[in-house]
Amino acid sequence: MHSHPEAADTLIIDAQLYDGTGAPPVERDVAVRDGRIVAIGNLSNWLAEEVIEANGRALAPGFIDVHTHDDTHVIRAPQMLPKISQGVTTVIVGNCGISASPVALKGDPPDPMNLLGERDAFSYPTFAAYVDAVNAARPAVNVGALIGHTALRNNQMDRLDRAATPQEIEGMRAQLEEALKNGALGLSSGLAYGSAFAAPTEEVMALAEPLAAAGALYTTHMRTEFDAILDAMDEAYRVGRHASVPVVISHLKCAGPSNWGRSTEVLKSLDGARRLQPVGCDCYPYNRSSSTLDVKQVTGDIDITVTWSTPHPEMAGKLVKEIAAEWGVTQQEAARRLQPAGAVYHNMSEEDVRRILSHPASMVGSDGLPNDPLPHPRLWGAFPRVLGHYVRDAALLPLEEAIRKMTSLSARRYGLAQRGEAHIGYHADLVLFDPERVRDAATFEKPQQPADGIDAVWVNGVLSYRDGQPTGERAGHFVARGVASRVDAQGVF
Ligand code: ZN
Ligand code: CU
Question: In this structure, what DSSP letter does residue 201 have?
């Protein structure tokens, strides 16, 4: 049957096809064979082993979650239900300066590497070992990877509260080069965290130098997202210019009440930089952030919900101010007693979230934390929340533009060859969903819930999720950096 030119493994009939580039949808049938899209058009004369009636629902390239902390999760929970249930077919791990590889721990993982798991979760001393582990686990989604600056620092340095020496930077560079040789997408940093805050810009610049030759990029959880955010953005641009690589600003936001409303200024800075160098950002569609509980951010001006605490697991779900009142101590003291802990910070304005999400250079990335017992709902809800809440209900942006921010923009930026668009010859990573019904179900109170309205998801041509259930097939694999990220001064992708 496969020898017949008009035979396919799968035919998807009567879809509104979004190609991922931002173009409006067209009514099409799509044929998939051997993991690729082999025909698009009126395919009524085709045969297939499986025919799916789309009935005019939306068919799009599978979503690319550019900002994840799924490094160890893709191995330990390869069914990847939080992501496949959203229509996500590729995740990029290693964000915010923390990656599972290459890592050799001397003790417990430092904050925030503990977001990826405990000590025993880190068993990949080289990037090649991590790639092998991902492929052996057969995850349900494809996996691209960044290398974390903090992870490299922790490998090479005896303490993290100082700048790296030239020799230590040499050691970090050698590890980064091994990873780039084996297909890593780039370098990430997490300069706001105590484990990297002492790193001067020059340390990151020196470490970033090998990226350009590999066609890789630099992503950053910036030095600050609070009042000095414009300086932090300048620092990110400077690293990009020094290393001649594209820059992605992670989870761009205006954090803290004194900063609310400044997204206009922040995006003006981004647009100014985009005239000179390739710069973009990712964001998630919520006005609350989440990470480890940072005592410095416990200033009393916002609510902070505790999501986990090693010494006080019973406090998960409570506000720091409630815990402080219960214990009769200050909020800062309560936060110290809860360490190590995780938190949700009520620290953004809705207006800023909307402005950043609708900017043409922003990609969607969940920043979900899969090891958190009470995870921020972005882990299960980020993509359907954009499609349902922001596109359909709030009419913030057109559906084809939202899809572009989840697909082609991301694939082109990160160099994921032949993904992120629905064209003949491309990998058949696809999602079929109902624009009228798609909706995030995950809430802050009940965060572990699959979305509604995601009807079918194919990964590398294999039907992996259908009608609210995983099919049991897991067809993802490690994806190496493909074509070099296009260095486009306009930053228009
Ligand atoms: Zn981050
Ligand atoms: Cu992150």
Answer: H
